[in-house]
Amino acid sequence: MAQDSADSEFGNDKHITKNDKFINRRKFIQVAGASTAVSVAGCLGGGDGGGSSGSLTFGALYALSGSVEVIGRPMMNSTELAVSQLNANGGINGQEVEFVKRDNGSDPATGIEESRGLINDDNADIVFGAYTSAMRDAVTDTYVQNEVPFFYPTLYEGSVCNAIGDSVVVPKENLQWLFFNNAVPRQQIKPYIPWLIENKDVKDFYLIGNDYIWPRTTNTILKDFISENNANVVGENYVPLAFTDWGTELQAIADADPDIVYFTTVGDSQVAMIQQAASLGLTEDTVFAGNIMSEQEARAAGDAADGIYTSAPYFINVDTPENEEYINSYREEYGDDTTPNFVSEAAYWSVLMTANAIEQAGGADGPAGVRDALETEITMQAPQGEVTMDPGTHHSVLQSRVGQFNAESGQFEVVEEFGQIDPAGISVQDGCLDVN
After folding, report:
1. Which of 21, 225, 391, 393 shows the smallest number of beta carbons within 10 Å?
2. pLDDT attached to residue 433
3. How far out from the chain centre does Cα 336 lie?
4. 263 and 368 share a domain?
């Protein structure tokens, strides 16, 4: 997804917290009950790579400082929340899960250093982490070489085994130790583009994105869908990361006179674009839509984001019992200073899915055992609805939705449900991994 900033400052949260427990245990949360099929009976087999006394150690590597802290913090919180719920409900097979968290500082070099610490010092059996493609790509070799599974909960461009363009982003040898549980382009934009064309009566698209792999790959795929649905691309432009002075680019958009501006801008660039477009009246006359805006960016843009569309597996007001429990539990623990979103939700249930897999396997002997357990078809109820791990691709079958931002409520209202969509196809090769 988004790239990392090369420069970062570390806050006090950089240091690890081992066996992290909540100060406020409350009257416990039953999220991990029947809906996730996580039981509490039995005995867990210990492995060389795990925590002491046969327990497992789950590591987390998210940004608690630096340029993507605003997204990294709710991801870390959600991972911590899931582990705490597991332990309060008896752990995995009756064994408490040890939890270690490290701050990647929004900096890929720091991510590599902290990954080595999680593996070599903390003996993590699996690590959940990263928001940006730059961070994921930077740390992947560390986990592959040390044979420790890495669970990535962020939407991204795909390109697994077969690539979009000339570059293979996730080769098969790396995929063996990577697991994904957020959307690839097939799951986000394949149903979304015809929906926009039909329901918003748009034909002429203008594509605007930040200049790195995720926007360019997404737009390569997007253009095929636009053409297949008898619509047109009337302009395409890319700007550097952290770009915020949109005057010239917005004038070019106005001159092209599109029906819809489809944006793959991220973070501060996205917020500035929406605010400046609204000040020029562009958002009143032209549909603005994308597939990367979370509640954080939309709220930061304020009234300017009112009415903007996005596609995601999850929004905070999804009506499921699991989501109600997730949101209530999150806010009780962390207050309203950070907001759950489509990546923090995935961070949350990635932990529960891993626990589910280990329970289903009857235990896990170190990192290889955790990987083997995840290489099964695991279905569970996540806050977004039913989800399934596809062992042939190490990706997940997910829900797909369209949301429209309501500035008054500060939430995306779900306006369309596409149901579950398989990850294979377009940028993820079906059955890419030969799983025994």
Report:
1. 21
2. 87
3. 20
4. no
Q: Does 68 map to a domain?
A: yes
Tokens of 242: 């952290």
Name the residue among 409, 388, 412, 382 with its Cα closest to residue 320: 382
Rounded to 5°, the CA angle 224-226-232 comes to 115
At 91, which helix (H) or strand (E)?
none
pLDDT at 382 over 90: yes
pTM of the model: 0.85
| Total number of domains constituting the chain | 2
* pLDDT confidence tier of residue 27, bands split at 50, 70 and 90: very low
Minimum mean pLDDT among 67-76, 242-251, 303-312: which range?
67-76
User: Considering the chain, what is the average pLDDT of its residues?
Assistant: 87
Alpha-carbon 31 to chain mean position: 20
pLDDT band at 54 (very low <50, low <70, confident <90, very high): low
Report yes or no: 277 and 283 within 8 Å, Cβ to Cβ. Answer: yes
Residue 44 has pLDDT above 80, yes or no: no
DSSP label at residue 239: E
The CATH number of whichever domain residue 81 belongs to comes to 3.40.50.2300
pLDDT of residue 266: 87
- Give pairs for 284-287: CB < 8 Å, separation 24+: 286/253, 286/258, 286/259, 286/260, 286/261, 287/196, 287/200, 287/202, 287/259, 287/260, 287/261
CB atoms within 10 A of CB 200: 12
Burial of 203 (0-12, 13-18, 19+ CB in 10 A): middle
Of 392, 158, 420, 216, which is closest to residue 314 (Cα–Cα)?
420
Q: Cα-flanking dihedrals φ and ψ of residue 98, to 5°?
A: -80, 140
25 and 174 belong to one structural domain? yes
| Domain span including residue 48 | 12-183+317-397
CA distances from 349 to 82, 101, 164, 236, 307 (A): 7, 17, 29, 36, 29
Q: Please state the rounded mean pLDDT for residues 249-267.
A: 96
Contact 206, 177 (CB under 8 A): no
Q: Are 290 and 315 in contact (CB under 8 A)?
A: no
